[in-house]
């Protein structure tokens, strides 16, 4: 990703809710340091968008018509491990957050967050500013234990 102060952050949006994706796209497009590369509404299209455009950051809705956001995160990061993924979800379920982080997301935001918060998360994700909060570490450990990746 290199020096992000010199190059705009390339962003893709994956959300099947047209209004949400349009608001996100418009908000990203208005920012001088961000470039919207494309929008997808499902997992298959998301993979095509990432392959064609190689975004720095992908915003992914957890609930998609052909699977969940965790599935698409894993598929994106298998092919493009340097891509940063931010999960957007209306779920407050700790398991969903833990699965998201376990799949490789660098941020998890509720869909009730402000556009400002989402734009800030995009920028910090692109800078690779992983927040290693107690909650994040606890969720990751919980997911790792539940999936057999970490011994008790």
Topology:
Layout: E1 9-14, H1 18-29, E2 34-40, H2 43-53, E3 57-61, E4 63-64, E5 67-68, H3 69-79, E6 84-89, H4 94-103, E7 107-110, H5 115-126, H6 134-146
Parallel strand pairs: 1-2, 1-3, 3-6, 6-7
Antiparallel strand pairs: 4-5
Helix pairs in contact: 2-3, 4-6
- What is the helical fraction, as a range of percent? 40-55%
Provide the residue-averaged pLDDT: 86
What structural class is derived from the secondary structure elements? alpha/beta
Number of strands: 7
The top-level CATH class is: Alpha Beta
Distance between the termini: 36 Å
CATH fold-level topology: Rossmann fold
Number of domains: 1
Count of helical segments? 6
User: Based on CA inertia axes, which overall geometry fits?
Assistant: globular
């Amino acid at each position: 990703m290199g020096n992000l102060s010199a190059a705009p952050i390339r962003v893709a949006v994956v959300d099947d809710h047209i209004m949400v994706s349009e608001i996100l796209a418009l908000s990203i497009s208005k920012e001088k340091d961000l470039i919207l590369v494309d929008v997808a509404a499902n997992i298959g299209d998301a993979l095509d968008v990432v392959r064609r455009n190689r975004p720095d950051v992908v915003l992914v809705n957890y609930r998609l018509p052909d699977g969940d956001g965790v599935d698409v995160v894993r598929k994106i990061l298998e092919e493009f491990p340097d891509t940063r993924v931010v999960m957007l979800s209306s779920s407050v379920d700790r398991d969903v957050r833990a699965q998201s982080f376990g799949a490789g997301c660098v941020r998890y935001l509720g869909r009730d967050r402000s556009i400002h918060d989402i734009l800030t998360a995009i920028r910090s994700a692109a800078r690779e500013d992983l927040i290693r909060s107690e909650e994040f570490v606890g969720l990751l450990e919980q997911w790792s234990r539940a999936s057999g990746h970490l011994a008790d």
